[in-house]
Design a protein that fits this description.
This protein is of the alpha/beta class. Helices cover 42% and strands 21% of the residues.
């Protein structure tokens, strides 16, 4: 779990006005964290997936993901924006403020894919989504998500 999600991958109170700004931020962080080599390739993979179907869920949460041979290590980045992100389609028409970005190498192992899937499973429950929203610090977000994700591992 520690190799896929850690406190360095949590970004709170970011001013990202639209989906494109969010994707650019994620791509930039992927390179800065040495998870990928080229921002443009991560950005392209995020956009490609989003063009297939919106990754917006409900209650202001989106789970964009990118699968690319440029991504060197599977990772999950958590981003919370200061204001709702415009133009991001969700199931319930709420505006996105919390983003859980999944970065997956093209040759990723099944174990990595399962850990990434556990993030989505956790957020199916309305109480879990609210609990995540109530987390105020990076430490709280990290503790909540790692506890819930580990609970979903069989």
């Amino acid at each position: 779990m520690a190799d896929v999600f850690n406190r360095k991958y949590i970004f709170l109170e970011k001013e990202l006005p639209d989906q494109q700004a969010v994707f650019r931020f994620i791509a930039k962080q992927a390179v800065a964290l040495q998870l990928a080599k080229k921002e443009q390739l991560v950005l392209k993979a995020l956009e490609k997936r989003e063009a297939e179907m919106s990754t917006g869920m409900q209650d202001g949460i989106a789970i964009p993901h990118a699968i690319s041979s440029d991504i060197q290590q599977a990772a999950v980045l958590f981003v919370r924006t200061t204001k709702p992100v415009s133009e991001w389609e969700t199931f319930d028409n709420t505006q996105v403020k919390q983003i859980i970005a999944m970065l997956v190498p093209a040759d990723s192992t099944q174990a990595h894919l399962q850990i990434l899937a556990n993030f989505a499973t956790t957020l199916i429950d309305e109480n879990q989504r609210q609990a995540l929203t109530n987390c105020q610090t990076a430490a709280e977000v990290y503790t909540f998500l790692t506890k819930e994700i580990n609970a979903n591992i069989d």
